[in-house]
Design goal:
about 280 residues, mainly beta, globular
Length: about 280
């Protein structure tokens, strides 16, 4: 699940811890994604004293749909940020994407408001040609084109890669990913994957009861680095409890100065297409 409004010492330490005593995993089975609709409560988990942030509340509605030829993602969130010396800021966002199952085509559209006023309108499409790279073409807020590097991925393909590599026992995955949630090119996502957790031995930390989350899972930590940045620190980090069916029961978005937590409140399965 990779939205920029939601994404090396820390990663090195995690890799060292995960690498000690890791067992050789059996070959992975194909990833069987479960289309679903989920609702998360968003709260402020922590904030540094000098951040100025004193509170955050909101909700995230997430829908992962499937058609015969592609995947649809819709993320709608409402977040109210409270500050020590400034007025609260209310942010609403609606981010909709379509991604072809062959990983070559992608469409994206995000509309965002700030305190009820239009803040950003991003729209465009992108194509990938494997080793030849690709291109992202924006039509809003203005006509603009970015080259995408060879081997780049779109968001759903990246999520499937994480699950597949986790099933194979890999603990570190790096990839260039383009999601279209901001007017720039791909980002370098470095992901650390924890040991596989059995559903019964490690129940999800949520009051929601559903077979969709009664699944094997991994704790995943991702750091997001802009492709053109020389900074050793990521823009942000995203942690999640990722199930083997693509569902996430909880997320944390670490912006450095403060951390937002998203906890699953409701979930329901969506039908698979009859192709």
């Amino acid at each position: 699940m990779s939205n920029r409004t939601m994404r090396r010492v820390i990663l090195t330490a995690a890799i060292t811890a995960l690498g000690s005593g890791a067992a050789v995993a059996a070959p992975a089975r194909p990833v069987e994604v479960q289309p679903h609709r989920a609702l998360y409560d968003m709260t402020l988990e922590s904030a540094k004293p000098n951040s100025g942030v004193v509170g955050a509340t909101g909700s995230l509605a997430y829908q992962w749909g499937e058609s015969c030829d592609g995947w649809t993602i819709e993320q709608r969130y409402k977040l109210s940020m409270q500050y020590e010396q400034d007025q609260p800021v209310d942010i609403n966002s609606n981010f909709v994407t379509w991604e072809s199952k062959d990983g070559k085509s992608y469409r994206f559209n995000e509309r965002r408001t700030r305190n009820g006023q239009p803040d950003e309108d991003i729209k465009g499409d992108a194509t990938l040609k494997g080793a030849k790279g690709g291109a992202a073409v924006f039509v809003h807020p203005k006509d603009q084109t970015f080259d995408l590097p060879p081997g780049a991925l779109f968001p759903t393909a990246h999520t499937l890669l994480l699950i597949r590599k986790a099933q194979e026992g890999e603990h570190y995955i790096s990839a260039d990913v383009f999601d279209g949630s901001s007017v720039d090119g791909a980002v370098d996502i470095s992901a650390v994957v924890g040991p596989k957790m059995d559903a019964k031995a490690n129940p999800a930390s949520t009051e929601v009861k559903s077979p969709l989350i009664d699944r094997p899972s991994w704790n995943v930590r991702m750091a997001f680095f802009p492709e053109s940045s020389k900074d050793e620190n990521p823009d942000y980090e995203l942690g999640m409890r990722l199930m083997d069916n693509g569902v996430s029961s909880e997320m944390t978005i670490d912006y450095g100065d403060y951390v937002i937590k998203a906890k699953l409140k409701e979930i329901q399965a969506l039908p698979k297409p009859a192709c």
